Amino acid sequence: MDALHSDILIIGAGPAGLHAAFYAAWRGLKVRVLEARGEVGGQLSALYPDKRVYDVPGLPGARAAELVAHLLRQLDGLDVDMSVNRVARELEKVDDGWRVSTDGDTFTAGAVILAAGLGALLPRAARVPGADSHPDVQTDLPDPAGLNGRRVLIVGGVPQAARAALELSEAGADVTLTHSRALFRGNPMTLEKLEAARTSGGFEILAPARLLRLTPQGAELEMDGTARSIKADTVLILGGYLPDLCPIGAWPLDWHGEYVPDAPGGRTVLEGVYVVGDLAQSGGDFKLISVAFAQAAIAANHAAHHVRPELRVRPGHSSEKR
Ligand SMILES: Cc1cc2nc3c(=O)[nH]c(=O)nc-3n(C[C@H](O)[C@H](O)[C@H](O)COP(=O)(O)OP(=O)(O)OC[C@H]3O[C@@H](n4cnc5c(N)ncnc54)[C@H](O)[C@@H]3O)c2cc1C
């Protein structure tokens, strides 16, 4: 299969990757972003979508998910392809740049920007007795349309669980939501809607309840000291996400622990490969969005010059361009 080519390939769609994508595309380059998860935003959308962030310049107190929405809006009209559900696993030098392989497609680019943060944010495995016995156990947010008309049991208290319950119910699934504690996490609007669904009987909420085991037909729970059998065609076990650096851990980047050293301009030891954000050693223990933005702006402009030497490194001011 032919590799998909872009001028710049960015690994990771967290704040660093999204801002690097903006700058490189704004310089007129074709950009592709590979993201391991099914949605973009990195730690902000996977780990704390509903928390308010106070130290991002210009957007005081915005929720993390809103910040991601703003970053995406900034890409409107630019030549950026977002390839989600793609874990970058191999990096190879080719004549005019680099080739990156995922489990499916292969991508080539003149320059690569590593914005992989703490690692690929992959869903926690479903560690529930009997999980192997049920025919359809999933651990990440599904496409709601694909579960229309199915009985779906959602297990978990993370923000994605409350969101999935509402989205799947709206898309026509017959939803039961359960959690070991009484309270769910999520943004206040989502939680209000959840409460409304509980009161109106829009879908069933069993919490606090203990998931005893999955069965081929669904699950057995214990609630208020009583055992309950729930029928489910699909079981979604949403336990959050864990970062995994292993997919890129063998790339020859002179690793310092979980960091990749970055020389001025975000350069790594590999010519044409740059590093930004939480993965870059210069930011190190800061691990801040504002630091990631600055590193992304610098590296993207160096990468742009690397791919097209006729482009100066300095981008000039956006306020003076159309
Ligand atoms: C609970 C919490 C609260 C925080 N609060 C704040 C705050 O208030 N202010 C602040 O400034 N910072 C805060 N941070 C830190 C901030 O979220 C990080 O500094 C920021 O997300 C780093 O951005 P990044 O783009 O470098 O990495 P990430 O956000 O980690 O994004 C990296 C992306 O790369 C993807 N990826 C990794 N490997 C691969 C691969 N091999 N293939 C494809 N995709 C891959 C990951 O799935 C992920 O989506 C907080 C962090 C946490 C956990």
Low-confidence blocks of residues: none
CATH topology call of the largest domain: FAD/NAD(P)-binding domain
Determine the mean pLDDT: 95
Q: What is the CATH-assigned architecture of the largest domain?
A: 3-Layer(bba) Sandwich
Please compute the radius of gyration using only Cα atoms.
Answer: 22 Å
The CATH superfamily of the largest domain is FAD/NAD(P)-binding domain
Strand coverage percent: 25-35%
Shape type: elongated
Structural class of the secondary structure composition?
alpha/beta
Number-wise, the strands total: 19
CATH class of the largest domain reads Alpha Beta
Bound molecules: flavin-adenine dinucleotide
Q: Alpha-carbon distance between the termini?
A: 39 Å
**What's the domain count?**
2
Largest sheet: 7 strands, mixed
Helical stretch tally? 7
Helix content percent band: 10-25%
What are its keywords?
five-stranded parallel β-sheet, 322 residues, binds flavin-adenine dinucleotide, 2 domains, single chain, FAD/NAD(P)-binding domain, alpha/beta
Note down, in words, how this protein is organized.
The protein has 322 residues and is of the alpha/beta class. It has 2 domains: 199 residues, 3-Layer(bba) Sandwich (FAD/NAD(P)-binding domain); 113 residues, FAD/NAD(P)-binding domain (3-Layer(bba) Sandwich). It contains 7 helices and 19 strands. The strands form 5 sheets. Strands 1, 2, 5, 6, 7, 8 and 19 form a 7-stranded mixed sheet that branches. A 5-stranded parallel sheet has the order 10-17-11-12-13, covered by helices on one side. Helix 1 links the parallel strand 1 and strand 2. Helix 4 packs across helix 5. The radius of gyration is 22 Å and the shape is elongated. The chain binds flavin-adenine dinucleotide (FAD). Flavin-adenine dinucleotide (FAD) binds next to helix 1, helix 2, strand 9, helix 6 and helix 7. The site of flavin-adenine dinucleotide has 37 residues, from helix 1, helix 2, strand 9, helix 6 and helix 7.
